[in-house]
TrEMBL record:
This is Catalase. It catalyses: 2 H2O2 = O2 + 2 H2O. Its cofactor is heme. It comes from Kolteria novifilia. Heme binds at residue 338.
Length: 488
């Protein structure tokens, strides 16, 4: 048997007794001089960090991206520079609306966030298992999430709030149709796709821009629970997807995904019939086919959940040279909101935590100090720029290419003239009869407690997407579709 290590305090001081507190006699009170006891209790009181507001419960694993197709004509990002190139990564899956103790099988979108440890720094692709979202204007994000959380008085889930918001936000129709189909209850994290969802930009060595959407397509096949199966599994094993992912990797059954892109030129974007940066819509694959550029594999479990999964911090603002943002309003807000959430939850130096730290490049920044600063904190080097003492300097080749903008600064009505029904209707129409039945049944079950006013308003949206969609929900709720349509 290997020699056991000596137990120490967090400061490395040997602990003489970890079984008994220091007391004044066998029956006396505990003494304040028991420094080991004080350290254990004080640290215990601080073991929990603030829970993520969204994506609170998750699972993660390490892996690699292997490039299978050369797209260097579109991007100067070095991770895509040659076929066969491998980049290490960490991927975190999550549910969105529930708390840390919620069930993995709950009806909810799933987060799909990937941190690529590239030689040019970390690139974070922070998306979901759906290619669209409920809203297109970030001003509405806090309102949306409040409806998915608990009622402020009863502390219970609130179907009225959910459907009141959806019925007053027709742009949610596409995502609502996905969420209440069986795609809203994936069987496991391995059996679902991931999407960057937003439009991003690729910049090539000549400074030319191509708009891009990222798709991560499972090789395990899509598998979903029915609503009845999801309810049953949630009661029997609330951690079903977390368990499945860990066990599969532990057994060497490494899950893989096809890493794909859709590409659109600036000229195509300018001539596109709708806003290509609208997060509530997809780009038609017939016009912009998927191009497979790599294979993503997960092959290593974390050694410690808290250190590596709970403290993992992803930000869409982590964009390496050759990959940039777009005018997508939701993305623009996430560029601020995500790193700001990490500064609140983990501290100003969260990038120094091992799971978040850049691995293949030196970090040469002028940020100093703050809670939990690791290393020498820059030593005696200057903490300002420009300076005359050999400090790091900017690299002009990493600048984004100029993007032409037009229009007056104003608050534009994002719903005016927008078609929020066609793509939701298209999705409904390609479903099988069984899939349509499940979708309508799931919606009916969720909407049953809400008022007729909200039901009527939401059913009119379903009818706008497809008459059979609206009629099916109305009949499921025992309502006359003609009366619903006649009521304003």
């Amino acid at each position: 048997m290997a020699e056991r290590k000596t137990l120490t305090t967090a400061s490395g001081i040997p602990v003489g007794d970890n079984q008994n507190s220091i007391t004044a006699g066998p029956r006396g009170p505990v003494l304040l001089e028991d420094l080991h006891l004080l350290e254990k209790l004080a640290h215990f009181n601080r073991e929990r960090i603030p829970e993520r507001i969204v994506h609170a419960k998750g699972a993660g694993a390490y892996g690699t991206l292997t490039v299978t197709k050369d797209i260097s004509a579109h991007t100067k990002a070095k991770l895509f520079s040659e076929v066969g190139k491998k980049t290490e990564l960490f991927l975190r899956f999550s549910t969105v609306g529930g708390e840390k103790g919620s069930a993995d099988a709950a009806r909810d979108p799933r987060g799909f966030a990937v941190k690529f440890y590239t030689e040019e720094g970390n690139w974070d692709l922070v998306g979901n298992n759906t290619p669209v979202f409920f809203i297109r204007d970030p001003l509405k994000f806090p309102d949306l999430i409040h409806t998915q959380k608990r009622n402020p008085q009863t502390n219970l889930p609130d179907a009225t709030a959910v459907w009141d918001f959806f019925s007053l936000s027709p742009e949610s129709m596409h995502q609502v149709t996905i969420l209440y189909s069986d795609r809203g209850t994936p069987r496991t994290y391995r059996h679902m796709n991931g999407y960057g969802s937003h439009t991003y930009s690729l910049i090539n060595p000549a400074g030319e821009r191509t708009w891009v959407k990222f798709h991560v397509k499972t090789n395990q096949g899509i598998e979903n629970f029915t609503d009845e199966e999801a309810v049953k599994v949630s009661g029997e094993d609330p951690d079903s997807a977390t368990r499945d992912l860990f066990d599969a990797i532990a057994k060497g059954e490494f899950p893989t995904w096809r890493f794909c892109v859709q590409l659109m030129t600036e000229e195509q974007a300018n001539a596109f019939p709708f806003n290509p940066f609208d997060l509530t819509k997809v780009w038609p694959h017939a016009d912009f086919p998927l191009i497979e550029v790599g294979t993503l594999e997960l092959n290593r479990n974390p050694a410690n959940y808290f250190a590596e999964v709970e403290q993992a911090a992803f930000s869409p603002a982590n964009l390496v040279p050759g990959i940039g943002p777009s005018p997508d309003k939701m993305l623009q807000a996430r560029l601020f909101a995500y790193p700001d959430a990490h500064r609140y939850r983990l501290g100003a130096n969260h990038q120094q935590l091992p799971v978040n730290a850049a691995k293949a490049t030196d970090v040469n920044a002028y940020q100093r100090d703050g809670f939990m600063t690791f290393g020498d904190n820059g030593g005696g080097s200057p903490n300002y720029e420009p300076n005359s003492f050999g400090g790091p300097v900017e690299d002009p080749s990493a600048k984004l290419s100029p993007l032409a903008l037009e229009g007056a600064a104003a608050q534009y009505d994002h719903r005016e003239g927008n078609d929020d029904y066609t793509q939701a209707g298209d999705l409904f129409r390609i479903m099988s009869d069984e899939q349509k039945s499940h979708l309508i049944g799931n919606i009916v079950g969720s909407m049953r407690p809400v008022s007729d006013e909200i039901k009527y308003r939401q059913i009119r949206h379903f009818h706008g997407a497809d008459p059979d969609y609206g009629k099916g929900v109305a009949e499921g709720l025992g309502l006359d579709i003609a009366k619903v349509l006649a009521t304003e």
